[in-house]
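Re-run requested by the PI after the first attempt was lost when the workstation crashed. Everything re-entered from the original request form. Ligand of interest: adenosine-5'-diphosphate.
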Amino acid sequence: MTTIEFKGVTKTFNNGFRAIQRTDLTINPGEFTVILGSSGAGKSTLLRMVNGLETPSQGEIFIDQRKLTPQNLRHIRAKVGMIFQQFNLVNRLNVMTNVLIGRSYYRRWWESLFYLFTKQDYKLAHWALERVELTDKVWQRASNLSGGQQQRVAIARVLAQKPQIIIADEPVASLDPATSLEILGLLSKICKEDGVTVLASLHQVNLAMQFADRIIGIKQGKVIFDDQPVNLLNNS
Ligand code: ADP
Ligand code: ADP
């Protein structure tokens, strides 16, 4: 199983704003780790650096003891799947095609439309849709699904890559409370049963307490808490 390591990571944007300040972190394999913080704390910046959507200004990130560089980004992205607050599906395409796009993660989404998917790609896509319990929606357009169903398609798209790590950037921020529980429960199940490391950002303490093995609290780009959920309320 795969570790994520941040060594002295700082992210300063081009306007001079420092969103992440000199951070050292090791994310343990097989755990469900929640990055907890309010809006603007730097959660998204932190997570986006793990699969190369942002690059550190200083410091280094290692995935599985391998330094993340522009040269091995494709290799890293094969291991690291990401889901987002807004699901990021291709709305006019059906569910199956959206999931198949996960099989061509190393191409741009439109390039994948020219790519002939193999039998194995379809097999994995079907397996992934079974895993998220959406086999009855395979030929529906993504835009016809509810928010919770769309997030499940996004999870299936990532699962079809057979990832070792899932990065989830505020995966339930667009969903109602009941659906939020359902989606976090699904991510937790994938973590425990399939041994996938899950690193998710949240802003709700109660959800973090309920699902995380470990909570990393961040504020203004700095880690201010790092412990098991039970110790969060004792922390002043
Ligand atoms: P860069 O990251 O190279 O600065 P972007 O295209 O991401 O380029 O952003 C361009 C500029 O827009 C940034 O320098 C910043 O001033 C502003 N900006 C973009 N996104 C945000 C944001 N989320 N919060 C504040 N400012 C932002
Ligand atoms: P969170 O996910 O915790 O809401 P973010 O990582 O999105 O926080 O943002 C952290 C801070 O960095 C915010 O103040 C945001 O405005 C700023 N920021 C994000 N992207 C950019 C950018 N491209 N340029 C300048 N500032 C940015």
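Saved to the shared folder this time. Residues 3 and 28 are 6 Å apart (CA to CA).
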